[in-house]
């Protein structure tokens, strides 16, 4: 009786951990349009309507992957969640930082290194990765 119970608990825990790291690019696209497009532009090339008033111009988010094609997940997460702050509009990136707090989860870099962040950031980063090479 205990073995089947332990097996069920183990399977449940594994399925919960798999759900925690799921990346939803559609949700990421919605987050991008709502929170990022004003500065980075609808097409993510850095030419949003607010770009002209920023001290540091927004980067072209379609060109984040290096020459080797590897997307810099850790750097992007750190920039969005504030671990690598960028002051471009009088406050650290992101302006909407508190929205992204909570809902802790993890994701892996291309090198396999785990990064603890929030689910909205995981979704946003997954969407940004789809923009590379456009």
Key phrases:
45% helix; 5 helices; globular; mainly alpha; two-stranded antiparallel ribbon; 134 residues
Structure commentary:
The chain is mainly alpha-helical. The chain has helices at residues 2-20, 25-40, 73-81, 97-100, 119-130, and strands at residues 104-108, 114-118. Strands 1-2 form a two-stranded antiparallel ribbon. Helix 2 crosses helix 5 and helix 3 (73-81) packs across helix 5. The chain is globular, with a radius of gyration of 17 Å. 23% of the residues are buried.
**Individual helix count:** 5
- Principal-axis shape equals globular
Strand order of the largest sheet: 1-2
Element-level helix/strand string? HHHHEEH
Task: Tell how many strands the DSSP assignment holds.
Answer: 2
Secondary structure elements and pairings:
Elements lengths: L1 H19 L4 H16 L32 H9 L15 H4 L3 E5 L5 E5 H12 L4
Antiparallel strand pairs: 1-2
Short description:
The chain is 45% helix and 7% strand. With 134 residues, it is mainly alpha-helical.
